[in-house]
Write a sequence for this structure.
């Protein structure tokens, strides 16, 4: 039986893994620090590559990066980094791997200073998802005022691979913005409930 669901254009007719990601995760608010770190690392790894490539490598990333436990990843030293550079199941880019370790270290400082990575990151949207009403994919921006501010703050905090377009993609992924098209079946499902 053919799938009759109307999705965002990037997921319509795409691979099953992309459709599953779109249908179950993209745009759903995330508040757990490990999951937020996972998306920061994966969005950084994706730079210059397709998201479907990263999704196919996601399980390997989870294994290689200790389930994205920031304390564990922050302890990675030269031997672990060497193993990661030899791991054919992840993106073997020295800068991206070092960035992941450095970003985990920065998360520990954020947790100490702000209580959680969640609290730090969600401040850029006032603690609530931004509801957008895009009718056409060409209207969806690649950055925003909020992603500019997040990028600048993350860089000041010692993060890397967190440019404003990476931050905006991150915000979309973790539900800080609902950028599902209004024609997409998920737009209404992830729409923030207002009191």
């Amino acid at each position: 039986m053919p799938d009759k669901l109307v999705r965002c254009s990037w997921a319509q007719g795409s691979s099953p893994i992309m459709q599953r990601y779109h249908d179950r995760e993209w745009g759903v608010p995330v508040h757990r620090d490990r999951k937020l770190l996972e998306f920061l690392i994966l969005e950084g790894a994706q730079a210059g590559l397709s998201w479907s490539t990263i999704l196919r490598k996601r399980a390997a990333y989870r294994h290689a990066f200790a389930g994205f436990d920031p304390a564990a990843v922050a302890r990675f030293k030269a031997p672990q980094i060497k193993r990661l550079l030899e791991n054919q199941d992840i993106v073997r880019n020295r800068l991206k791997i070092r960035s992941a370790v450095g970003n985990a270290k920065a998360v520990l400082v954020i947790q100490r200073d702000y209580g959680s990575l969640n609290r730090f990151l969600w401040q850029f949207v006032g603690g609530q998802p931004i509801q957008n009403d895009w009718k056409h994919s060409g209207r969806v921006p690649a950055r925003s005022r909020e992603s500019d501010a997040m990028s600048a703050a993350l860089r000041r905090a010692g993060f890397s691979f967190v440019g404003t377009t990476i931050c905006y993609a991150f915000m979309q992924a973790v539900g800080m913005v609902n950028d599902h098209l209004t024609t997409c079946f998920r737009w209404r499902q992830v729409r923030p409930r207002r009191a």
